[in-house]
Write a structure and sequence with these properties.
Layout: E1 17-30, E2 33-40, E3 43-49, H1 54-62, E4 68-77, E5 92-103, H2 120-125, H3 127-132, H4 134-156, E6 160-161, E7 179-181, E8 189-191, H5 197-205, E9 210-218, E10 230-239, H6 243-262, E11 270-273, H7 274-281, E12 295-296, H8 298-301, H9 307-314, E13 318-325, H10 333-344, E14 352-356, E15 366-367, H11 376-386, E16 393-400, H12 401-418, E17 428-432, E18 437-439, E19 445-447, H13 459-464, E20 473-478, E21 481-488, H14 493-502, H15 507-521, E22 528-534, H16 535-542, H17 573-578
Parallel strand pairs: 3-5, 6-9, 11-17
Antiparallel strand pairs: 1-2, 1-4, 2-3, 4-5, 7-8, 9-10, 10-22, 12-13, 13-16, 14-15, 14-16, 17-20, 18-19, 20-21, 21-22
């Protein structure tokens, strides 16, 4: 139907007869001559309909934005003064010989011919229109190209693309499973995979050596801007490897993506111990572009009468920290109040601060509501430890570790964004040496990653003090986003059963849920490990958006609904009866 894409016609095609197809991006009537900007996936081209071409001109008069048209005509230079140097096709236009309307369109609910901020719900409800917007087109195409690069890279490194089941068995991985009933086995259920974790380990036990998959995964969990109930994972596993080998091949892949699609070279990936990251940044996803750190000052304030600082300073499960904001003195009281409200929403009881007007005069050159509660010696020590300079601002966080870490790490990222403190465009890092376990609200141990992660200790040491055990686990973080996580895996049946025991999974329960894994581990299992990358997050960063829904063709909302198709939806009573299911939900 077409000889050329709209966005590919240039002055090299002068005097050629061409045929294009696409959407009418904009229609303009200039003194009896009608101009049609026609858009397809490659770009926009201008077509001119003259009134002496009566049949085509009459059609052109009826055309509106988003009509789908076919145009045949001859390429010519634009008139002097009408050249658009900002367009790839800006030097030429098509003089229309034949015009055909292939499909009419209703008036769009939001404009596509010019950029406007549109409510996201409106965009998702009308996703077909939204995908036509050039920036959305570009993101989805970039996604396809990045996926091709990843496949080519892993193929060249002797990895084999192998599919694993979508209908599988429910296994605990830290989030709720999506459950599907089996019609042919009433009362039994499949689970959609949270990841291909166990299957890729089984592939290593099956001697496949190197595996990868662009895998669709499903997690029924609370959503955030960078999460979706269904998402795409770059899943990688290899046998007879050490941690550093997985990290090296992962680094090269990420560097290739950034080089190819951003034309920039990533520096060396910094490697941080998990405990150091939590101490200095309050989180295991630090944005190293921001030169702000948490400084522990518990020892400096534990003997103060100011209970807001003193009490958490003496509690081993709490901490008191400070952040030095260079030249932060320019922040107004109103801005500081806004930051106080920000951390309060994250559980903090407040946000103390000290403004440094003159670091050489700590008696008269500083201001803060908390000065009257602190000894001058303590203030002097804080200034020395933080290496404070004139015009700096100090923020303080005090309270339970979890609250301080969450609120102050979030404050660092917000300050970085608000004050444009970024020291570079990209800042990749590895977080390594994670604890094997963490305590939940009930005081029970749960895996920090998953229960198939290899500990860096013997089985005897693990059982004697599981809280002290460190995992062969590693996460890769880019600009404050965790884009991938992996580990070496347990390859010994006794070690795996010991982990289950620590997690209070009985032998009977382990056999029921993981009997197939334990049996495979007994058949001769190679040392192996791998990593999984969030494809959606990588593309989000590469295409310079902060919303993961911008890089998924048909995403869900934060309430896990599809506004385009109205999923999830009710099903017919007959369907439920066939599946032997009774709904206990009461309509309000």
């Amino acid at each position: 139907m077409k000889s050329h894409y709209c966005g590919e016609i240039t002055s090299s095609n002068l005097k050629e007869e061409v045929t294009i197809c696409g959407w009418v991006h904009r229609r303009r009537d200039h003194g009896g001559v009608i101009f049609l900007d026609v858009r397809d996936i490659k770009g926009i081209c201008q077509a001119v309909v003259n009134p002496d071409n009566k049949e085509s001109f009459k059609l052109a008069e009826s055309i509106r934005n988003e009509y789908v048209v076919q145009i045949n005509g001859v390429v010519r230079n634009r008139l002097e003064g009408t050249i658009n140097k900002n367009m790839h096709t800006g030097e030429i236009e098509i003089e229309v010989k034949n015009l055909d309307i292939l499909s009419k369109a209703n008036t769009p609910v939001f404009p596509i011919d010019e950029y406007q901020e549109v409510n996201e719900d409106v965009r998702l409800k009308n996703r077909v229109l939204d995908l036509r917007r050039p920036e959305m087109n570009e993101r989805i195409i970039t996604r396809s190209k990045i996926t091709s690069l990843i496949r080519n890279y892993l193929d060249k490194n002797d990895f084999h693309e192998i599919e694993t089941p979508i209908l599988t068995k429910a296994t605990p991985e830290g989030a709720r499973d999506y459950i599907l009933p089996s019609r042919v086995q009433p009362g039994s259920f499949y689970a959609l995979p949270q990841s291909p974790q166990l299957f890729k380990q089984l592939l290593m036990m099956g001697g496949l050596n190197k595996y990868y998959q662009i895998a669709r995964c499903f997690r029924d969990e609370d959503l955030r801007a960078d999460r979706q109930p269904e998402f795409t994972q770059i899943d990688i596993e290899a046998s007879f490897v050490e941690q550093k080998e997985i990290m090296q091949i992962s680094e090269k892949m990420i560097k290739n993506i950034i080089k190819e699609f951003c034309d920039e070279t990533l520096d060396k990936f910094e490697v941080l111990n998990w405990h150091d990251a939590m101490e200095e940044y309050g989180c295991d996803k630090p944005d190293l572009r921001i030169p702000l750190k948490l400084i522990e000052i518990s020892d400096l304030v534990k003997d103060e009468e100011f209970k807001v600082f003193a009490e958490p300073a003496k509690d081993q499960n709490s901490r008191v920290v400070a952040i030095r904001v260079p030249n932060g003195n320019s922040l107004s009281r109103g801005q500081i109040d806004d930051y106080t409200k920000f951390v309060s929403k994250l559980g903090a009881k407040g946000l103390a601060y000290i403004k440094i007007n003159d670091v050489k005069d700590l008696e008269n050159g500083i201001q803060s509501p908390i000065l009257k509660f602190l000894k001058s010696e303590t203030i002097s020590n804080i200034v020395d430890v933080l290496k404070v300079k004139t015009n700096d601002l100090i923020f303080f966080g005090a309270g339970p570790q979890s609250v301080v870490n969450l609120s102050m790490s979030s404050l660092i990222k917000k300050l970085g964004e608000d004050l444009n403190l970024y020291s570079s465009k990209w800042a990749p890092c590895w977080i390594v040496n994670f604890p094997m376990f963490e305590e939940n609200a009930e005081g029970d141990l749960t895996p920090l990653h998953h229960p198939f992660t290899l500990p860096q200790c013997s089985k005897k040491e693990l059982l004697e003090d599981p809280k002290k055990s460190i995992a062969y686990a590693y996460d890769v973080v880019l600009n404050g986003y965790e884009i991938g996580g992996g580990s070496l895996r347990i390859f010994d049946k006794d070690m795996q059963q010991s982990i289950f025991s620590i997690l209070n999974i009985s032998k009977e329960e382990a056999d029921k849920k993981f009997g197939f894994l334990l049996k495979a581990l007994s058949s001769g299992c190679p040392p192996h490990g791998g990593i999984a990358f969030g494809l959606d997050r990588i593309i989000m960063l590469v295409t310079n958006t902060t919303n993961i829904r911008d890089v998924i063709a048909f995403p869900k909302t934060q309430s896990a609904t599809c506004l385009l198709t109205d999923a999830p939806s009710k099903v017919e009573k007959e369907q439920l009866e066939e599946l032997k299911i009774i709904s206990t939900h009461k309509e309000e």
